[in-house]
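Teaching note: in complex prediction, the entire set of molecules is handled at once rather than each chain in isolation. The prompt given to students was simply: 'Predict the structure of this complex.' The entities are:
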Amino acid sequence: MAELSAAPNVREQLTAIARVRWQLFVNSLRTLRGRLELVSHVFITLGFAMGGIGGVVVSGGGAWYVISHGKAEWLAAILWPILLFWQLFPVVATAFTENFDTSNLLRFPISYSSFVLIRIAYGSLEPATMLGSLWLLGVAAGIGIASPHLFFWSALVLLLFAVMNILLARMIFSWVERWLAQRRIREILGVLFLLFIISFQLIGPLMSRYGNREHPQILQLAQWILPLQRFLPPGSAASSIAGAAGADFTVAAEGFGILSAYCLAIFWLLNMRMRAQFRGENLSEAPAPAELSGERGTTRVGWSLPGVSGSVAAIFEKEIHYLSRSGPMLFTLIMPLFMLFIFRLTPSTSATGSGSLLGRSSDMAFPMGAAYALLILTNLVYNNFGAEGAGVQLYFTAPVPIRSVMLAKNLAHSSILALEMIFVWIGASLMYGPPALATTVATAAGILFALPVNLIVGNLLSISSPKKIDFGTFGRQRASNTTVFASFGVQIVVVGLAAITLITARSFGRIWLATIAFLVLATVAWVVYLVVLNGIAQIAFDHREEMIAELTRAS
Amino acid sequence: MDMPAIATEGLTRRFGALTAVDEMNLRVAPGQFFGFLGPNGAGKSTTIKMLTGLLAPTAGRIEVLGLDLAVNAIDVKRQIGVVPEGMALFGRLTGAEYLNFVGRMYGLDRETAAKRAAELLGFMQLADQPKKLVTDYSHGMQKKLALAAAVIHGPKILFLDEPFEGVDAIASGTLKAMLQSMISRGATIFLTSHVLEIVERLCSHLAIIHRGRLVAQGSLEELRAGVEAQAAGALPNGEGHTAVVATPGKKLTLEQIFLRIVGGARPADQELSWLS
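The expected output is the structure of the full assembly:
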């Protein structure tokens, strides 16, 4: 027998992984798509860098202010937003988050401690960790400038706070991924998650509605809750620094101790997941229990749509089935109505004399809801082969022109938008009163313009920059950076143009002018749409190899 | 001579400097169960992708049922069924919905598609769990569903890329029964597989591709005769390679023929320096 190699060196293993990641990145630049991704990535990174620098200034300035004014316990007000951003951003903005699958590492002779280190180190290479760490550096600098003798203790506490955040983010990810392994739970959690996210949007309107009035019960509740937050991570970190600032070392040690306890508890929970992963846990879709049914031997007849071929109707039906089985995606469709509801909660006038746009201009409710519906639709339109995965090959082996495939998908997405527009109109009517006929017509005309523009760009990006949507994983991006970047650009141009047109026409009291402008733009857009649709087969033909390779690749 | 079901002329595919398929001239007669073999990376999947329209050839011509694929792609696709690499399934449909969908993509009317989908699910023993999504199917069930989808429109030619990969004996039996049934009805089957025992049992004719070039083509007997003739002529056996010869009185197996043709037999004295 050959001699076994020496015990693996952790540093060399980490270096090897870093090298392989670098090689993967370099290899990705061989294709045009990869180079476009890099360009998009550079722009996105620049955006994050600006956010990072702005955050450093704000958090540093805030820390300097509270320390200078002897209110160190108010540092919690700075640390809470940092914690919330750190934990929520990776979940909300999955397009900017890269969580590489470490399960492949298990076949190597990696010790458990190396596995943990790799999971934590490489799982933390994301904007939230970078920005959160940068902002904490800003806080430390602000404290150091305001009170130099406090710097070292603050830096230590903030370092522990950063470690706690890194561990917490990893812990949340690993547990959520565990729960999302089953499709049903995934969909339920997806809906719960969206409810959680949109509940944040209620804070603003509720604050403006109730914030300026006296509510003794709320004050009592706040007085009861505020001392408790001292025992939560941001509060305990702030309390520890405040203790050191006031030379009360018992309080400083107590805060530090609580924060350390959080780190240990979170690490224990993370450790449970990582142990299971290290033992080779398989989180693939578990087979559902057998559902014996009396329907055996028969299958339901497919849909028929007037005026279109059977294949177009079949793709339309398939799109609707897919949408109906994606709980979170379906749920996002009620978001426009929810947004109108949020604006409805905001009082039209407040003590400061300001008020919500819709409070002052309720006839804008329908246009705003419609614009929001269009924005939501981009989730479907800009990566319209993403959910198909390997199934995309069928479109190239079946005797159906790709033009028909695209047409069917566009038809399905347009129908969803039309249906949603009706719901938005009803919702706006109930919440703000029926929109004026002129506004309704102008909005419909505006959508008639915006829809084909989005379909054109969406169709092209779906072919040139597809991204497989993996329903079985969490936090892996669902659209390519190029797509995200391009869709931002399109929305800024289209929604901006529509809004300017509508507001200008409204300010002249002649909404019909906007209708005419939109109809002219819509005519041009639909002509371009048809030209692009007619050429889409050739474009798809030219890109089919990359499309198939991208959509069939293992996650 | 009958018009071939599949014919290629100078079929070539290059990926940059690499020539994956090189000047291939292939002929498959109608009604043949045709096995397309080759070592890993020889160009099998690239060939089948070109034959089914998933990949554009760099050069050469493909005729399927007498139609030029480049000119009559839609007409060709209407008459063929494909189980590509990765199976082309739609995970978030049920088996019945998927078959219905595929049937209609191939031009069947709604009623016919539904009727055939039900029959196929029954034949493939997939009818027990009608509400189960394809993503929840086991690998073997997915293979059976992929084959069912490939035959729902009654194709004249069936292209199968590794249909038996990762399939257990029970599912494999169902797949073989379906394929035999297709052959008995006059269909042509073009199959790639690494499971040579299955190919030997099913296929009447074979082609072997090696490094992008077609190195052998014919019936199993013709290939065997060719290899035996070479062996009788005292060709490469004595060059330090592991001998690939039949036991006296026994015919060469397909595996032996294959190894002989592609020269994949390992030199007898080759060892790894650190593995002793």
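Point out the following to students. Chain B has two domains: 30-53+74-206, 219-262. The mean pLDDT of chain B is 86.
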